[in-house]
Fold:
Amino acid sequence: MIDQPEKSIQQLQERAKRSAREFATRNEEGKIFTVVEFSINSECYAIELIHIREIFPLKELTEIPGVPPFIRGVVNMRGQIISVVDIRQFFELPAKGFSDSSRIIVLRSPEMEYGILADAILGIRAIPESETVPGLPTLTGIRQDFLKAITHNQTVILDGKKLLSDPKMVVK
Structure:
């Protein structure tokens, strides 16, 4: 039996796929970012849906010794072991504990797959490129390196492709 949060996430993913097809056919004037919005330390972030394999609740996290501090551990996702990155620590933001609304967003490319921690999932939405700016002069450091765009309401759209290809994410 599927518990309620997983069923909700599954419904959101199906709705997002339908919406993405609709927006792709409607958008002839400019690019549309179809994103999953999530919160980290009371800030709103987003990653394009094309880089996300799935989202699931954080239940059990097994820590691994000897890895960089931003790698919080691994989880067992239906028999598959997924590394989990605390994007807060990676972006040098203040640490925060987990809550019942904490989620793992699994990012995937042909070369790499891992999860990032989010305090909460805020939803899925389509953002026209015309409603974004490429960056802010006040946003500096490592977050600037992974920035794709910022919306007028200050949602930071992260570059999923860069996150999935960054050599710092590979532990040797």
